[in-house]
């Protein structure tokens, strides 16, 4: 488990932004486009603000979403609303390069539509994910039936983190991506990280090999306890 430790959330955002920019450039040195799935929640805000200020060959980027909440389009609590405000505001990104999840249609219809849209690419290049306090990632929650579903995008019901209805990339889709990057900040994520380092099978541990960017509050006292690479 490749853990990159930052002293605070701002340093975490900076380190993750530099890493993601580097990985995007690596993809674009091999291919015409880079398909990047974006994490929701609050942690990525600072990261997206930094990426917005970087020269990322934007015209060759396709933005997907790791998950979306089933709320009306434009709702402030939707993940794509935050991305449009923080990462993409003022960017002349063609609509065809922003692949929002039509979660306002409801979990089943939106998951079916997103799976179809994802079928047009071989795989995602980079999937950016957050970590929930219970070990969830994207909208894949512990013991939720969505974990076992095989399609690339899956409907989520009874999510313990509101709203209860969501759409998520499946474990399969996350695992088949070329690269996974997880970001986690704050002491409220420490318990989930401890369980992952202890080898517990929580969704965020099931995604396979990933680069983890964590801040000191989330990892304090944990790095020494596990056979893991824990870079400063
Ligand atoms: C969501 C996210 C979810 C998030 C984690 C962490 O829609 O809520 O996709 O997976 O990444 O819950 O959220 P925070 O970054 O806000 O702590």
Automatic annotation (TrEMBL):
Domain of life assignment: Bacteria
UniProt-listed InterPro entries: 6-phosphogluconolactonase_DevB, 6PGL, Glc/Gal-6P_isomerase, NagB/RpiA_transferase-like
UniProt GO molecular function: 6-phosphogluconolactonase activity
Domain Glucosamine/galactosamine-6-phosphate isomerase: 7-208
A biological process from GO: pentose-phosphate shunt
Record's keyword terms, sorted: Hydrolase
Classification via CDD domains: 6PGL
SUPFAM superfamilies membership: NagB/RpiA/CoA transferase-like
Reaction it catalyzes: 6-phospho-D-glucono-1,5-lactone + H2O = 6-phospho-D-gluconate + H(+)
Pathway where this protein functions: Carbohydrate degradation; pentose phosphate pathway; D-ribulose 5-phosphate from D-glucose 6-phosphate (oxidative stage): step 2/3
EC assignment: 3.1.1.31
Key word Hydrolase present: yes
Annotated function: Hydrolysis of 6-phosphogluconolactone to 6-phosphogluconate.
Family according to the record: Belongs to the glucosamine/galactosamine-6-phosphate isomerase family. 6-phosphogluconolactonase subfamily.
Name of the protein this chain belongs to: 6-phosphogluconolactonase
Designated gene of the protein: pgl
């Amino acid at each position: 488990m490749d853990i990159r430790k930052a002293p605070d959330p701002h340093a975490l955002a900076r380190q993750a932004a530099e890493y993601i920019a580097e990985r995007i450039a690596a993809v674009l040195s091999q291919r015409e486009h880079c398909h990047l799935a974006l994490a929701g929640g609050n942690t990525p805000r600072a990261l997206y603000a930094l990426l917005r200020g970087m020269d990322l060959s934007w015209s060759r980027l396709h933005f997907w979403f790791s998950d979306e909440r089933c709320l009306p389009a434009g709702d402030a609590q939707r993940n794509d609303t935050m991305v449009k405000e923080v990462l993409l505001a003022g960017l002349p990104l063609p609509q065809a390069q922003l692949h929002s999840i039509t979660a306002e249609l409801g979990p089943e219809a939106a998951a079916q539509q997103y799976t179809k849209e994802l079928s047009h690419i071989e795989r995602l290049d980079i999937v950016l994910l957050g970590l929930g306090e219970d070990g969830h990632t994207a909208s894949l929650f512990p013991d939720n039936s969505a974990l076992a579903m095989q399609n690339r995008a899956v409907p989520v019901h009874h999510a313990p983190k509101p709203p209860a209805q969501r759409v998520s990339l499946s474990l399969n889709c996350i695992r088949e991506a070329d690269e996974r990057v997880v970001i986690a900040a704050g002491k409220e994520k420490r318990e989930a990280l401890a369980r992952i380092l202890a080898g517990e099978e929580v969704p965020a541990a099931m995604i396979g090999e990933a680069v983890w960017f964590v801040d000191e509050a989330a990892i304090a006292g944990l790095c020494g306890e596990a056979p893991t690479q824990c870079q400063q």
